[in-house]
Amino acid sequence: MTADTGRRLAIVAVFVTIGLLAAGAVAGVSGLSEMGQPSGDEVLDQTEQRYDAAETITGTATVTVTNDSASKTATVEYAAAEPNKKWAAVTSENRSYEMGTNGTVVWAVGENESYGRELPDAAAMNDSTDPVPEENVTATLRGTAEVNGESTYVLDLEPTNESLDAPNTTLWVDTDDYRVHKMTTDDGTNRTELTVEETNFNVSIDDSQFAPPADRVAVTSVETYDTYDAAQSATDMDLPEYENGTFEEARYISRPESTAVAQQYDADGENVTILTATGASSYLDDAENGTAVQVNGQNATAIERDDRAVVYWTESEVTTGVVVEGTTDEAVAVAEAL
Q1: Domain range 3-209, CATH class
Q2: pTM (predicted TM-score)
Q3: How crowded is residue 41: how many other Cβ atoms within 10 Å of its Cβ?
Q4: Cα–Cα distance between 114 and 151 in angstroms, integer?
Q5: Could you state, in order of their start, the residue ranges of all structural domains in the chain?
Q6: What are the Cα distances from residue 42, in Å, to 15, 143, 154, 168, 175?
Q7: With contact defined as beta carbons under 8 Å apart, do 76 and 61 qualify?
Q8: Which of 38, 218, 270, 310 is most buried, by CB atoms within 10 Å?
Q9: 3-37: pLDDT as tens digits
């Protein structure tokens, strides 16, 4: 199984968590409605209304991803609540992890790693239980079939925008209450099958379900500044300024054990990044393939990789770094011009 499969399982977990099992704003076919069955868009409209009416959703699904070389299955438990609260736990044969957001922090926890980040106030997040895709979808009612003993409508979904290279997607929707029982996607390489084992609407969910585990997640906050002066005023570190380039933006990144400011400059069409950070030396001590260089008499380390060069040095527990699209010599030249 390729590494891409694991990412696909994560994507499907989020897909279920935020309720993307309902699609709205659709254009369907109406020929079958004359035979006593609803059209594709009518079924999807009822499904959307079913999920839209719910203030909370919980459930369990089984996800299987297969390709020519292997097959992998995971169990996904999920929950969603208004406003913008989501959680999922994914368990497979050899790994397990959780992910979620309480509306202000997005986080993920694995067996040996974790991630947490504050969301900006204006973050564009889909409504937790009203996940209508941006693109319109054409739904074709293929007929009915049983899934785990339940009668379902079988729908083939395609984006109305023919330029989109979307996978073949089929949805099985309950003929009685319009909950989703199954979904498959096939992109020609990987086939994903999601079977919903259980769905609960409007159940009580404690807010702690969506909060990052305090003992596992160090939350990262990120602020963006449009001027050098604004960035400098936000930190106690002395930020170098690159006068041979045009300042574009700076990002202030804060974690409990470290802070960093990344300044972006445009130097005659080339991107230059100036990094200033505390708590970085412990990570950089293990950097491989570094070359010793001098920057204005200061001992520094240079690394070239993928047409980029990085030069960095640490003084008084503050690490300064320069990243350029070019060679070590070019990175050193920028560093000496700070």
Answers
A1: mainly beta
A2: 0.57
A3: 24
A4: 41
A5: 3-209, 221-336
A6: 22, 14, 13, 20, 12
A7: yes
A8: 310
A9: 344 433 433 343 443 333 322 222 222 333 334 57
